[in-house]
Specification:
- Helix content is 11%, strand content 33%.
- It is mostly beta strands and 175 residues long.
- The strands form three sheets. Strands 1-2-8-5-10-3 form a six-stranded antiparallel beta sheet, with helices on one face. The chain has a three-stranded antiparallel beta sheet with strand order 7-6-9, with no helix packed on it.
- It is globular.
């Protein structure tokens, strides 16, 4: 499994994270990338709060949980970390691709096929409460995010730490 580790700098309205966003292209075989099956996979690997929907078309992030997104139908161009001119990235997702977002990483749907859907989930005890870009001061966002621990298991295959080895054992300290 090839993992692309993407570091995203904070912007004026999105805290992002010192931990990288993890992109795993083709992490789930196309024939296995069905909503109910992926939700069950994430639950079996210790992630909870599963849902199937789209990615919102406005910049938002989470301060109460890390998030995994797995594309289960269609295709989309999703922005991560803010606008490209602010250091963000736009990634093309297709069925089977998985993105693991550390808390604070902004995301937004730019374009998607009409059948685009992702399965999302969160580590135990964490939630996907939405914070819109600019709605919370960055210092407060960083304080809340720093209280979250790294998940124990990889949502894709359940390994400990699995792809999450790309994240440090402890939250890096912001300067």
């Amino acid at each position: 499994m090839s993992v692309e580790s993407i570091r995203l700098p904070a912007t004026a309205t999105i805290p992002n994270s010192d931990w990288p966003l993890l992109l795993v292209k083709g992490a789930i075989a196309r024939e296995a990338a069905r909503s109910a099956a992926v939700e069950q996979r994430f639950q079996d690997h210790g992630w909870q709060g599963t849902w199937t929907y789209t990615v919102y078309d406005y910049w938002h992030y989470h301060v109460e949980g890390h998030e995994v997104l797995a594309c289960v139908s269609g295709t989309a161009r999703i922005g991560f970390g803010g606008e490209p001119e602010d250091g963000g990235r736009v990634l093309d997702l297709e069925v089977g691709d998985v993105v693991i977002l550390p808390a604070g990483v902004g995301h937004k749907r730019f374009k998607a096929s009409s059948d685009f859907a992702v399965v999302g989930a969160y580590p135990p005890g964490q939630t996907g409460a939405i914070t819109r870009a600019g709605a919370l001061g960055l210092q407060e966002a960083h304080r809340r995010i720093a209280a979250l621990s790294r998940p124990a298991s990889d949502p894709i295959d359940g390994a400990e730490p699995g792809v999450l080895a790309h994240w440090a054992d402890e939250h890096p300290q912001r300067a």
